[in-house]
Amino acid sequence: MAQYAAAIDQGTTSTRFMVFDHGGQVVSVDQKEHEQIYPKPGWVEHDAMEIWERTQEVVRAGLDKVQASDIAAVGVTNQRETTVVWDRSTGQPVHNAIVWQDTRTDQICNELSADGGQDRFRAKTGLPIATYFSGPKIKWILDNVDGVRARAESGDVVFGNIDTWVIWLLTGGADGGAHVTDVTNASRTMMMNLETLDWDDEILGILGVPRAMLPEIRASSETYGEAKNGLVGIPVAGDLGDQQAALFGQTCFSVGEAKNTYGTGNFLLLNTGNEAVQSKSGLLTTLAYKIGDQPATYCLEGAIAITGALVQWLRDNIGLIKESPEIEDLAKTVDDNGGIYFVPAFSGLFAPYWRNEARGVIAGLTRYVNKGHIARAALEATAWQSKEVVDAMNADSGVDLTSLKVDGGMVYNELLMQFQADVLDVPVIRPTVAETTSLGAAYAAGLAVGFWSEVEDLRANWGKDKEWQPQMDAEEREKEYRFWKKAVTKTFDWLE
Which residues contact 466 (CB under 8 A, 6 or more apart)? Predict the structure, then answer.
């Protein structure tokens, strides 16, 4: 009898394999980073073959502690929007994967927006036209890599976000691999219709993307095939974009439940039930999940491009710290931000602004400011950006947030979590298993094969690790927020 459910969590900077028991507790984990490739300013790429090698390595290492035969099913969760185009018969990518943060498609997006504005496709897709999404990235590859368009039209060259790439290889690759995606990942391409949950032919025509190259859109929790590599014979039965997987892992199954993930970027998702709620405040309308043949569940999402990535930048590009956790100690050497505000618009601004042309600024610098203030302002930037998204979410949903469930790597930063509670003026709650992205993918896979019988079983697994209560007075909060908003305006219109 199977005792475990597993997940492959392919993220922006690393790949992780995790195994969970029936109570949702971690039994085994392995993780490896992969290279970040920056060919030009604003361009961000990954080597898709390296990602597959890392995936196989972490699966092998993660199976040291458990027998593969004890795993009921494996789910896949992934960095969303990152675009891979490959040859179906050889399995070789035609170009490096173009990462979600990449801004090379800004000209394509400007041309698309020239006819009908930035919200031209929003009614159908729930998304503004932005460099973030996969559709324009596919168009860029078709337009810029010789010979690919003709091969795509015949279906010899195919597309997938990273979930599709991993599942295809996991289930056999060129030898009969399943070319599938789920509704959550498809909803991030700017090509899926929210109502039909199918590719939208009109948008495909405008983008010039052949339907023949696209994966089949399936539920987030169903069996797509059996693993051939490493996990031989185990059903591959869950597929969720990383943020939706975190929502699932946080057991936000009721309308009005929300979570915020603190990773490379920050992503706040609010369950809106079986209805797609169109945003008037700069949020994305997207799919939360779909379990088997049940109706799909939708959510509102506030996506922030740069949060944890700002700490990495201070570490790798500037050398302010040697290890990411040192940011907290450095920030604690000062009592406040020294009057500075750090707006990390490194790849434009995402929610709620959607300004592709914005670039990062540090505002309010004086001779008084030291590296402690910069560290503190960098952490505060994460909390302020999250507050802007919460304000937008409250406006769209008409329901005020009463508490915030948090997960991801940065939630062990106590200074940040306290400041987040302070600026939101609601309790911030960290669960016992903070790696809810992997957990959500394992849950989706386990549900599909009956390892868990219903979502209520999963709710019983959720436990609270720590809670932060707001301590800042309202006047101080308002004053600081005004300065933050002012700093944000300084990033606008940087690129001509």
Answer: 417, 429, 430
